[in-house]
Write a structure and sequence with these properties.
The complex is a heterodimer of chains A (353) and B (512). With 353 residues, chain A is of the alpha/beta class. Chain A has 15 helices and 12 strands. The longest helix of chain A has 16 residues. Chain B is an alpha/beta fold and 512 residues long. In chain B, the strands form 6 sheets. Chain B has a 5-stranded parallel beta sheet with strand order 11-14-17-10-18. In chain B, a hairpin with a 4-residue loop joins strand 15 and strand 16. The chains are: A alpha/beta (353), B alpha/beta (512). At the A-B interface, helix 7, helix 8, helix 9, helix 14 and helix 15 of A face helix 8, helix 15, helix 20, helix 22 and helix 23 of B.
């Protein structure tokens, strides 16, 4: 293991060169023991780099790191491990080592749900519904543990007893943003938090695109729930597209600045996202006919289809007294026919989902 | 022998009797007032000297000692001026009267020997009655206040000279001169629930809160009408009994908020302290223990607007008074107990930006939760009802059909209160549904099977705590009482389950 860590610590070589070295020598120990001549036989390694690798043959730092990792209870996956996400092998830039906490499971069918940190209630709802649906169908939900959409995706998945993967841009001994410490712990318990950065790495701006690439590589499909003009989610979208993954984007209001990025993606051939079942391979047959409702509850359900309303609004539209509404709404909510939303609003559950 | 004039001093909302003893001793001209008086008492000597000289009385050129007995209790206020002046006149034999034994005196003197109104006249008069002092002399402005106590002869005067003439029997007290007709109270700011439109569901919960003594927390966007509703809550509470009114008046008298009026306070108080209020201003305290806002709201409504902005310590200090309905202020030098039985009405924004649930809100659920956690669990726990107030639609306003009037609502409240009084007649310390303990809930809150089932469904869905369970039962009890139903029906429990928006919202929030 220390040879793997050593290889990662050598300066001047990135994931792509590392992969090439590994292919040639078979394992890191051989690289460690190789002399400069042998190293130069690998494509892309010049005399300077070969000298650099050769002169850095000290395992001190790697051993210290290994001890640290052991102390922090962090696990390591190397690219040769059977558990290493196989879908990543296809991409030359995939890291040769992944640090993780939690349970590694097959995530080939996983769907990435990412988006803006400062999101609207619309983006939030899209995320919650999608993550909930995916969890219900045992599809892993992959996201980046950031504020906003990312955290909602993780939380909705955990609440629905699903498997969620958080890919972060810092060492696993830290948490960014700090307020997600509890969330991170919860993900570790039921899912996995992974990173390509060793412990003690602080989150830095330039790490995030790299993290996004990992998300794009892990998933089979990407849902961009909400993205403004310069959202980081657009990087994930671009990378995923390059890797040939299908992009799902819900349409946003054309005037809303928080949805511009999304709408531009749609204009550039992303799939318009209308229902979470699009994220799943198997087409499902869903009976769309509403159960036979009579009287007031039908009125309420109709009134709440495709929009969210307060008790006062519902009264105005249905003409049912507010006091009677209280009871009806409660019963319908408990039966799961309508859904309570923040701000004392309700919406129908049979909307389009 | 020292001459003695009777007066009173305040302690909390009660008064006690004071003997003002005056003695002239041969020595350097000097006047000293002993008996732990504060600055207002100490300064009496300047006012008294000026007033006596003004009226051509002789101010004694000797050593004068004035003692306020009992001397080990702190005294404050300017109402000792009159008894001190009279004591001096009596000691220097410039006045002779038999009346001093059966008279108590209260009043501040101006430099021209006129009498000024002072605070705390009502509790002092009550004390006079209790300790058998038949007559009391007060400044004219305080006559009305003093007259609220029956069984004590109240004499109101304008000047020191009048009092002296009266005491010496030179002039008879002519009531007709001083008979002030009670002011017809025309309050231009009289509010009524009629002005609240399109909020039927919210109003129903307000009525429930008033009827069952439940505290209420209103959530809503800025400007949606939370304060408007809160201001009108006192108008639907049952009117105060005479005893309650006297209690309230007493507190206001002590706090010095009666000046110029002096009538019995008949309307339930409404107090709305700003959120930068200090702990002591809220619960009472200070140098000579003034009642705080919670005591001023006694028998009425304490409205805390923007409750999340109040200091944490300040809010926590409310917990004990809310439980005990009195507040005890303990300092090294004194301990005072003020009544503080109030209905707490609070309002806050649902999230930092104020528009949670609206499209423009960009607060994350975590931030919303953090914001709400500014109010501690125990305080939130005492808010039985937590509802959203939705902004009124322009259509409702422009159509102009008015809401239900306060009078109608009050009748409903009084109806439910009567049922509760009947129910809790035998039980000490419980007057309304909100005060029920564990055992009482079990006894009085029986559910019909249908309601039971509903409660269980909600329980599973929202994972309520056992404590919340009790809360819902209490609110449901009030809903049933409103319609005079012995049993708690399904619709009562349904309405109760909808009473706590904040708790239901917690269940749907995307936070772990």
């Amino acid at each position: 293991m220390e040879y793997w860590l050593w290889l990662r610590l050598v300066e001047g070589i990135g994931s792509i060169t590392e992969r090439k070295l590994l292919e040639y020598f078979g394992n890191p120990k051989n690289i460690y023991e190789a002399d400069q001549e042998q190293l130069r036989l690998v494509e892309g390694i010049g005399p300077k780099l070969a000298r650099n690798i050769h002169c850095n043959r000290s395992l001190d730092q790697a051993l210290r790191l290994q001890e640290n990792i052991f102390k922090q209870d962090i696990n390591i996956l190397t690219i040769h491990d059977a558990n290493y996400p196989q879908q990543l092998l296809k991409y030359p830039g995939s890291p040769i080592i992944l640090y993780y906490k939690g349970k590694i499971r097959d995530s080939k069918s996983g769907v990435a749900v990412v988006g803006a940190r400062r999101c609207s209630s619309y983006g939030k709802q899209v995320t919650l519904d999608a993550a909930n649906y995916l969890a219900g169908h045992s599809i892993p939900v992959i996201s980046g543990l950031a504020k906003g959409i990312d955290s909602y995706a993780h939380i909705a998945c955990i609440k629905a007893n699903g498997y969620t993967i958080a890919v972060v841009a810092h060492g696993l001994d830290q948490c960014y943003p700090k307020e997600h410490r509890e969330l991170m712990q919860a993900i570790i318990e039921t899912g996995v938090v992974m990173s390509e950065y060793p412990p003690d790495t602080m989150p830095r701006q330039e790490y995030f695109p790299q993290r996004n690439a990992l998300i794009a590589g892990l998933c089979s499909k990407v849902l961009i729930a909400e993205a403004g003009q310069k959202s980081g989610a657009l990087i994930t979208a671009k990378l995923a597209k390059e890797q040939g993954k299908e992009l799902f984007v819900p349409p946003h209001e054309i005037y809303s600045p928080s949805g511009i990025g999304c709408n531009q993606l749609i204009a550039n051939d992303a799939t318009v996202y209308l229902h979470p079942k699009q994220l799943i391979e198997i087409e499902e047959k869903q009976s769309n006919s509403l159960p036979g409702l009579t009287g007031n509850d039908k009125k309420i359900e109709n009134c709440l289809t495709n929009s969210k309303k307060t008790i006062e609004d519902i009264e105005r539209e249905t003409g049912i007294n507010q006091l009677e509404l209280l009871e009806l709404l409660l019963v319908m909510e408990l039966e799961g026919r309508i859904q309570a939303l923040p701000g004392g609003r309700f919406r129908s559950n049979s909307t389009c989902l | 022998m020292a001459s003695i004039v009777k007066s009173f001093a305040l302690s909390g909302v009660d008064a006690y009797e004071i003997d003002v003893e005056t003695k002239t001793i041969e020595g350097q001209p000097l006047i000293s007032i002993v008996g732990l008086g504060d600055m207002a008492v100490k300064e009496a000597r300047e006012r008294v000297e000026s007033a006596l000289t003004d009226q051509k009385y002789v101010f004694p050129q000797m050593k004068v000692v004035i003692n306020l007995a009992p001397s080990d209790l702190k005294k404050s206020g300017s109402h000792f001026d009159l008894p001190i002046a009279l004591g001096l006149l009596l000691e220097t034999k410039q006045i002779t009267s038999e009346k001093f034994a059966s008279f108590g005196f209260i009043g501040e003197l101006s430099l021209n020997a006129r009498l000024r109104a002072c605070t705390g006249v009502l509790p002092m008069t009550i004390r006079a009655k209790e300790s058998g002092i038949k007559n009391i002399v007060v400044p004219r402005d305080n006559i009305q206040e003093a007259s609220l106590v029956r069984g004590v002869n109240v004499y109101g005067f304008d000047t020191l000279r009048q009092i002296v003439d009266f005491l010496e029997g030179k002039e008879l007290y002519n009531t007709s001169i001083f008979d002030i007709p009670p002011e017809e109270e025309v309050d231009p700011q009289k509010v009524d629930f009629q002005e609240v439109q399109g909020q039927e569901a919210m109003l129903e919960y307000i009525v429930i809160a008033a009827a069952g003594g439940h505290n209420i927390l209103m959530l809503g966007t800025p400007g949606c009408g939370k304060s408007m509703i809160a201001k009108r809550i006192p108008t639907i509470l049952p009117s105060m009994t005479e005893e309650e009114a006297l209690e309230v008046t007493k507190i206001y008298s002590v706090a010095g908020l009666m000046r110029g009026k002096g009538q019995l306070i008949k309307d339930r108080p409404f107090r709305a302290p700003h959120h930068n209020a200090s702990t002591n201003s809220l619960i009472g305290g200070g140098n000579n223990a003034k009642p705080g806002e919670i005591s001023l709201a006694h028998n009425g409504v304490l409205f805390l607007d923007e409750i999340a902005e109040f200091g944490n310590k300040t809010l926590e200090a409310l917990r004990q008074p809310m439980e005990d309905q009195v507040v005890t202020i303990s300092r090294v030098r004194y301990t005072n107990t003020f009544p503080a039985s109030f209905m707490l009405v609070a309002a806050m924004n649902p999230c930092p930006c104020g528009y949670y649930g609206n499209d423009k809100c960009r607060c994350s659920d975590y931030e919303v939760l953090k914001y709400r956690q500014k109010i501690s669990g125990p305080i939130l726990d005492r808010m039985d009802i937590q509802r959203y107030v939705q902004p009124v639609k322009f259509k409702d306003l422009s159509e102009g059909h008015s809401g239900t009037s306060s009078k109608v609502l009050r009748q409903r409240v009084e109806f439910a209160r009567r049922i509760q009084q009947e129910r809790y007649k035998q039980i000490n310390g419980v007057n309304c549904n909100a005060q029920m303990g564990h055992a009482l809930v079990k006894e009085f809150c029986q559910l019909e099977p249908e309601g039971e089932q509903l409660l269980h469904m909600a329980y599973d869905r929202y994972q309520y705590s056992a404590r919340a369970f009790q809360k819902y039962l209490k609110i449901a009890r009030t809903f049933a009482d409103m319609e005079g139903s012995e049993k708690i029906r399904k619709k009562d429990i349904a309405a109760a389950l909808m009473a706590r928006d904040m708790e239901r919202e917690r269940a749907i929030m995307a936070v772990l």
